[in-house]
Write a structure and sequence with these properties.
single chain, Dna Ligase, domain 1, D-amino Acid Aminotransferase, Chain A, domain 1, nine-stranded antiparallel sheet, four-stranded parallel sheet, 12 helices, globular
Length: 426
């Protein structure tokens, strides 16, 4: 198989790495790719949202499968263009992808089909948002309707912060992602977990889970980011976690997609809050998460590329693949000031010396001879693997310290508490 991975972040580096390790993979490409993907295949100088050029190049390069990485590709209709050209795609079309690209569409979908989710009010203006706020007694989650690179959600614990956020969004900073539509939701309390589900247009099959960390600072302080770390598998969940999810979440989702004639193909990321009443959907994503993919993919055993092709062709086959019992912990190294600012960095060493059972995935970056240039933001995800989360966490932070020494002087930052709350204190 000749496989194209669309995108250029750490998620795409991890996808490229795992696909290249598949027995059925002959060649792997990336568009636009990054410093990591360039190590195992050709990077194409084509934007992840340019469906026309991607389809043209795929035909020239005899590509057998395209894997869509970022949400922007899905929302831009890249999958539609490629399928029109007869190319198998792992990733939903633009219509089904609205489960992520529009939080209002997703919320209404859940309400129509009885899928557990937070009570919410839709607002289109500052006056409407402030009126909606009055119907929520406690803290709220304020969500921009469109794509906002992980920065379109503010969890406000009191009325003062909620009012200040709304005033900013409808004033000088504007609503993240553009437009004027937002959701004001009740704030759910419980255990947060991300479940990944494969869908071939007919069936939804659970495929691993992870927990991620969105806030920039330790102890969940600071602004929301695209993600500062993750671990897999999740701990401290009920033993009947998966059957309950299948009954209360996946069953209604599958029936809803069929009723609305949405043929969803790819991975559906279910962001869940496990409350005292069971699971509630916080959000859907239409692709593998970042950094969740970086801690899930190293646990996959078998021919991953063939699995993705079977999903794209509408005949999912999970017989030759599985998840190891090992744990993975990932820690993101970002440029100082992220997510409020993104400072470009040039001249990073291309070859990284990592301890045993550690690997690193490059974020948005480009190779420049023997060095790497990055545009700022999330630079690397360092992943440690071991028999359990405690030891995987130790591996990951050993890797972080090793890279911090090699990258001294580049002003990179990271959280020190990824997976700390689930690890026994020494």
């Amino acid at each position: 198989m000749r496989v194209l991975v669309v995108g250029g972040g750490a998620r795409e580096d991890a996808l490229s790495w795992r696909i290249a390790a598949s027995p059925s993979c002959e060649a792997v490409f990336a568009a636009p790719g990054n410093a990591g993907t360039a190590q195992r295949g050709e990077n194409w100088a084509v934007a992840a949202t340019d469906g026309v050029q991607l389809a043209h190049r795929c035909i020239l390069e005899r590509v057998d499968l395209v894997v869509l990485g970022p949400e922007t590709s899905i929302a831009s209709g890249v999958g539609d263009r490629l399928r029109d050209a007869g190319i198998p795609v792992f990733g939903p079309d633009r219509s089904a992808g609205r489960l992520e690209s529009s939080k209002i569409f997703a919320k209404r979908f859940m309400q129509r089909h009885g899928i557990p989710t937070a009570r919410a009010t839709i607002a289109h203006s500052l006056d409407g948002a402030l009126r909606a706020l009055e119907s929520h007694d406690d803290g709220v989650a304020i969500k921009a309707d469109g794509l906002a690179a992980g920065k379109g959600v503010v969890v406000a614990g009191d009325r003062e912060l909620a009012t200040a956020t709304l005033t900013q969004w409808y004033g000088p900073t504007r609503v993240p992602g553009g437009g004027s539509d937002i959701l004001i939701e009740e704030r759910l309390e419980g255990r947060e977990v991300s479940l990944f589900v494969l869908s071939d247009g007919e069936r939804l099959v659970p495929f691993g889970a992870a927990c991620d960390y969105k806030r920039a600072g330790d102890a969940d302080t600071g602004p929301n980011t695209g993600g500062m770390g993750a671990y897999s598998p999740p701990l401290d969940l009920p033993e009947d976690f998966e059957p309950i999810i299948c009954e209360r979440i996946l069953g209604p989702v599958q029936r809803g997609l069929v009723e609305e004639e949405e043929r969803y193909i790819g991975v559906l990321y279910c962001g869940l809050m496990w409350t005292e009443n069971g699971p509630c959907i916080i959000e859907f994503n239409a692709r593998f998460g970042d950094p969740e993919a970086q801690v899930l993919l190293p646990r996959i055993e078998g021919d991953f590329a063939r699995l993705l092709l079977s999903v794209a062709q509408g005949r999912i086959d999970t017989d030759s693949i599985g998840l190891s019992n090992e744990a993975c912990v990932g820690v993101v190294l970002a440029t100082s000031g992220y997510p409020l600012s993104a400072t470009p960095v040039s001249g990073l060493p291309r070859g990284l010396d990592l301890p045993e059972r550690c690997r690193a995935f490059w974020g948005s970056s480009s190779p420049n001879g023997d060095s790497v240039d990055v545009s700022g933001g999330r630079v690397l995800t360092v992943v440690g693997s071991d028999l359990d989360v405690e030891h995987a966490r130790a591996r990951a932070y050993e890797g972080v310290r090793a890279l911090a020494a090699q990258l001294r002087g580049y002003d990179l930052t990271y959280r020190t508490d990824i997976a700390a709350h689930v690890v026994p204190r020494s």
